[in-house]
Write a structure and sequence with these properties.
It is a single chain. This protein has eight helices and seven strands. It has about 260 residues and is an alpha/beta fold.
Length: about 260
């Protein structure tokens, strides 16, 4: 943990899903290390509230599933803040918990559109902004579910597994352009998204018990624990790390 560190002094950090959960935790961490923050979120009011926490920050309303909105969001950040140095490609949803043969096709489409296509659009237009800024970093939010199976969330699994490989392919393409592209793969973290996931399970009490005993390290990580990994990957300390998905999972995948 780099208390009083200024690893991101004078850098502009663009965060999707920045108004809550992992996005907001990372925003606070980046801002504490000198960055100017662009909070991009579907929830305008929450984005404005979050941006008000940080000097010089801006709030941008964006639905990542709509490419024209993502393109406009990066244009707004470039216009107002002059550059983009780091992108935390974090917006996502969990979707319904159903067995694959019972999966609501609309749910499949929604999760695929936001987590899959949306992550691609943020990379596409974000890399365009990074190229114009002389390089930079992307960190995407994948999941342990993108690296190992968990039942009843096949669309989520599909999108996060795809994002792990999209991270690799983009990293290889842009390495020569001074752009590094990595991902984090958290286990279940104490966020509003996970609270929703627990509450919407058939037996929320059993699901919470499962989540808290999911990993070899007992309990659940906090958003700050994941933010530490995001900041490391986005910092010069990770200068030779690209195309990597870093689990933040308390040993879950070691099994």
């Amino acid at each position: 943990m780099h208390m009083n560190s200024r690893r991101f002094q004078d850098q502009v950090v663009f965060i999707t899903g920045g108004a809550s959960g992992l996005g907001l935790a990372a925003a606070r961490r980046f801002a504490s290390e000198g960055a100017t923050i662009a909070i991009a979120d579907l929830n305008t009011e929450a984005a404005e509230t979050a941006a008000a926490e940080f000097p010089g920050a801006i709030a941008i309303t964006v639905d990542v599933s709509k490419p024209e909105q993502v393109e406009a969001a990066f244009e707004t950040a470039m216009d107002k803040l002059g550059k983009v140095n780091v992108i935390f490609n974090n917006a996502g949803i969990d979707g319904k918990q159903q067995r694959l043969h019972e999966m609501d096709v609309k749910n499949w489409d929604l999760v695929s559109r936001i987590n899959g296509d949306g992550a691609f659009f943020v990379l596409k237009y974000g890399i365009t902004a990074l190229l114009a800024s002389g390089g930079g970093n992307v960190v995407s939010t994948a999941s342990t579910v993108g690296l190992a199976a968990q039942e009843n969330i096949s669309p989520y699994s599909f999108t996060k597994g795809g994002l792990v490989n999209l991270t690799r392919s983009a990293a290889v393409e842009y390495a020569k352009d001074n752009i590094r592209i990595n991902a984090v793969a958290p286990t279940a973290v104490r966020t509003p998204l996970v609270e929703h996931f627990i509450d919407s399970a058939d037996d929320p009490t059993a699901m919470r018990e499962l989540m808290e005993n999911f990993n070899p390290i007992p309990g659940m990580p906090t958003p700050d624990d994941v933010a530490d990994a995001v900041l490391f990957l986005a910092s010069s300390e990770a200068a030779w790390i690209t195309g990597h998905t870093l689990p933040v999972d308390g040993g879950y995948l070691a099994r």
